Amino acid sequence: MNDKHIMLVEDDVTLQKLIYKLLSNNKYIVSIAKNIQEADRLLNLFVFDLVILDVMLPDSSGLDFYKNSIKNRISSPVIFLSALSDVDDRVTGLELGADDYIGKPFDSRELLLKIKKNLSKNNSLNMVKLSNDVEFNLKEERLYFKDQIIRLSSNEIKILKLLVNNSKQYLTRDLLNNELGLDFLSRSGDMQISRLRLKLKNECDLDDIIRSVHGKGYKIFI
């Protein structure tokens, strides 16, 4: 199985299925979002090696989503899907910093070549340094202190990934509870963050890396 994970953001169900089948047959792992809301949630849960993003989506423009959410959160390549006639959209996407585009309709061989080309040039790093001695591998979901693995529970891994993936903003209690599958009013998420803080302090010599601000939520400072 190819370990490259691709997010496909496309609302056209027929095209969704065609691209999913094409990529799956070529051994890629594929996660599908039919709108911006679903795509945003997936970005909080996974580290994608590449994103295929439709320009026209039901709840927002793919261009706006890229500019406001994707561009500053991940370094993985983004390929825009747009109608061949929409030259302005393609130019705008490239000007914003997108890596490539493909026009609809497209040949499956062209899409596969563009994916392969962009994956090969992708220089994003899965390893995030939390300090000089501490690294978190987002892809492997492993925390290292001086090259030794620090054991984390599944929820601790999920919380750390959420914090790292949202390092430029605050992680609200509502989002935390939602991603952990907790009740809206539950304080269990807060307690799990406290345990994670304690583990980072005791086992990794990391103190005060995760901070809370009243009314905003939690933020990791890396």
Q: Could you characterize the architecture of this molecule?
A:
By secondary structure, the chain is of the alpha/beta class. It folds into 2 domains: 5-121, Rossmann fold; 150-220, Winged helix-like DNA-binding domain superfamily/Winged helix DNA-binding domain (Arc Repressor Mutant, subunit A, Orthogonal Bundle), CATH 1.10.10.10. 42% of the residues lie in helices and 22% in strands. The chain contains 8 helices and 11 strands. It has helices at 13-25, 36-45, 62-70, 87-96, 108-121, 154-165, 173-180, 188-204; strands at residues 5-9, 29-33, 50-54, 78-83, 100-104, 127-129, 134-137, 142-145, 148-150, 210-213, 217-220. It has a 5-stranded parallel sheet, with helices on both faces. The chain has a 4-stranded antiparallel sheet with strand order 6-7-8-9, with no helix packed on it. Strands 10-11 form a two-stranded antiparallel ribbon. β7 and β8 form a beta hairpin. α6 packs across α8 (188-204). It is elongated and about 55 Å long. It starts with a strand and ends with a strand.
Keywords:
Arc Repressor Mutant, subunit A; 8 helices; Rossmann fold; single chain; 222 residues; alpha/beta; 2 domains; four-stranded antiparallel sheet; five-stranded parallel sheet; elongated
Structure class? alpha/beta
Give the averaged pLDDT, no decimals: 86
Radius of gyration: 19 Å
Instruction: Provide the spatial order of strands within the biggest beta sheet.
Output: 2-1-3-4-5
